[in-house]
Amino acid sequence: MAFSTLNLKHPKYDVIKKAPVGFSWTVLFFGFFPPIVRGDISWGMIMLVAWIFTGTLSSFVFMFIYNKIYVKSLLDDGYSSFDSDEVLAFIEARLNMQIPRVEGSVRDELNKKALKERKSYDELSPEEKKIRDIWN
To answer: Does the residue 52 lie in any domain?
Structure first.
């Protein structure tokens, strides 16, 4: 499982994406499908071609590197993070790359919105509580 998730925002189009950081279980189990579902068609096709020639062997390579490739491609497209400096410092150290930050009040508003979307345990429905209890 990815050890963290980056919250990224595109400054021009106001698109927000969550990018997992770390080991990719989804690539291990589903191969080239996760990049395609995320809209990363070029890497999905690269992984498909590698899968055709190597079978599942390519998944054992891409599971370690794909999430970093995805984050780097989003940053190259102009996305910036609105996560806290503590979270970003840890992720930057693990990825060995500088992550641009959304500046000022926009960052504060996005962080408040992200916090509002999270539910406490008491606010969960009975079905959500069962799922959370199973995973914890």
So the answer is: yes
